[in-house]
Amino acid sequence: MQLTKEEKRMLNGEEGYAARKSMEILTALGDIYGADQLIKVGSVQVAGVSYHNLGDAGLEFLNELAKDGRVKVLTTLNPAGMDLENWRQLGISEDFAAKQNLVIDAFRRMGILISCTCTPYLIGNLPRYGEHVAWSESSAVTFANSVIGARTNREGGPSALAAAFVGKTPYYGLHLDENRQPDIHVKVNANVATLPDWGALGYVIGKKAENKISYITGIRDADVDELKSFCASVVTYGAKPLFYMQGITPGAEMHQPPRETVTVEESDLKEAYAKINDEATDIGLVCIGCPHCSIKEIAEIARIIEGKKVSAKTEFWVATSRTAKQLADQRGYTATIERAGGKFACDTCMAVAPLKGRFKSLATTSAKGCFYSRQNGMATKMGSVEECVEAAVTGKWK
Ligand code: F3S
Q1: Are the C-beta atoms of 263 and 187 separated by less than 8 Å?
Q2: Inter-residue long-range contacts of 221-228, CB under 8 Å, 24+ positions, other chains counted
Q3: Which of 76, 118, 230 gets mutated to test ligand 1 (max ligand atoms within 8 A of its CB)?
Q4: How far apart are CA 235 and CA 44, in angstroms?
Q5: Which of 4, 224, 320, 353 has the most CB atoms at less than 10 Å from its CB?
Q6: Is the distance from CB of 241 to CB of 214 less than 8 angstroms?
């Protein structure tokens, strides 16, 4: 890989430990994937924030980097293992909170915004069409590539951090035009109406397209919340963090539908629901907000739960960014949801909080939420916001 003088200085350690380590990571990646240079990035999204996943080794690694590592571009953080303010109310232990706070403190010293959300594009980290960025968090990467039209590979936590310290990333993969061509035409002949339908659609297309870039037709309309739900699901059950949706996402008009074709029928969506849903009637946790709820989704939850009461046998969480929660405070949505017995889980989510063993079953609107909650040993149910609120109120899934 061709390096500039400045990049060579960093690699030689003349700009400190974190810059040297970062250059080692970036040049190694560049060599593996055949990049010829590093390119500037407009922003970085760093995943790998929960102490639950990092452990002491990860915390030590971050503390080493934080000694002299300072980010060069706008850098935001993925959800942590707990609500940074309200962790006690969510049942997080003192020990875990102390460790999680040390992780956050290391990121803060690096100059990273303590945003703790997987929807950075809703809270100010919004790239422009065609901009190169280095994001981790698969749902956000897919949203950036497909819905915004920015360009990013699916970074891991360390490679995203390295890009933040250098302000650059190796020029390969989805940064290049030739790797952004659609491979498979996905004709949707099914009605996609509710939020979980988008999760089910993501499941089906993820499975059918596997590691190919889909060119999706047959979708008449989609709002940002539906698209973020689809992004989370399609990359969880498939692999490629890029798709085109004719008439909906930018760049689709520049391509012709590929010759290889698959169809999605109503029966496929039904089958997806059957695969995502487990046998469960009693519901221990209801969590909406995967990816993190937008203010519009919080307003919808408040409207549906107003005047109801969450069952004593169930917890009801709204996972969102602190920024969205502050807007919800202003409009009274927080008060409505909390009056009903719901709790806000800002800064965190059902996948990265230490929930293993605490709940036997989960209800959610999110197909991705089901995937990760199963790994946490929970039986899962996916349904609409109305069905989830009903489960929270009765403690049962109908
Ligand atoms: Fe976000 Fe957690 Fe879902 S990081 S996409 S809420 S699993």
Answers
A1: yes
A2: 221/248, 222/198, 222/248, 224/122, 224/147, 224/294, 225/195, 225/294, 225/296, 225/297, 226/192, 226/195, 226/198, 227/143, 227/146, 227/147, 227/198, 228/119, 228/139, 228/143, 228/147, 228/291, 228/294
A3: 118
A4: 19
A5: 320
A6: no
pLDDT in tens, the chain (398 residues): 999 999 999 999 999 999 999 999 999 999 999 999 999 999 999 999 999 999 999 999 999 999 999 999 999 999 999 999 999 999 999 999 999 999 999 999 999 999 999 999 999 999 999 999 999 999 999 999 999 999 999 999 999 999 999 999 999 999 999 999 999 999 999 999 999 999 999 999 999 999 999 999 999 999 999 999 999 999 999 989 999 999 999 999 999 999 999 999 999 999 999 999 999 899 999 999 999 999 999 999 999 999 999 999 999 999 999 999 999 999 999 999 999 999 999 999 999 999 999 999 999 999 999 999 999 999 999 999 999 999 999 999 98
Q: Atom 1 of ligand 1 has which residue's CA nearest to it?
A: 291
Q: List CB contacts of 167: < 8 A, sequence separation 6 or more.
A: 40, 41, 72, 73
Q: Ligand 1 centre and the CA of 52: distance in Å?
A: 14
Which atom, in ligand 1's list, is nearest to the CA of 139?
A: 5
Strand ranges, E, within the chain: 38-40, 43-46, 74-77, 134-136, 154-155, 168-170, 184-188, 214-217, 243-245, 261-264, 285-293, 315-320, 343-346, 361-364, 379-382
Degrees, nearest 5: CA angle 65-68-72: 90
**380 near 286, Cβ under 8 Å?**
no
The residue whose C-alpha atom lies closest to atom 7 belonging to ligand 1 is 351
The closest-lying atom of ligand 1 relative to the alpha carbon of residue 372 is 7
Distances (CA, A) of 105 to 124, 159, 187, 244, 308: 21, 20, 47, 39, 39
CA distance 318 to 337: 9
Whole-model pTM? Answer: 0.98
Of 78, 111, 88, 165, nearest to 349 by C-alpha is 78
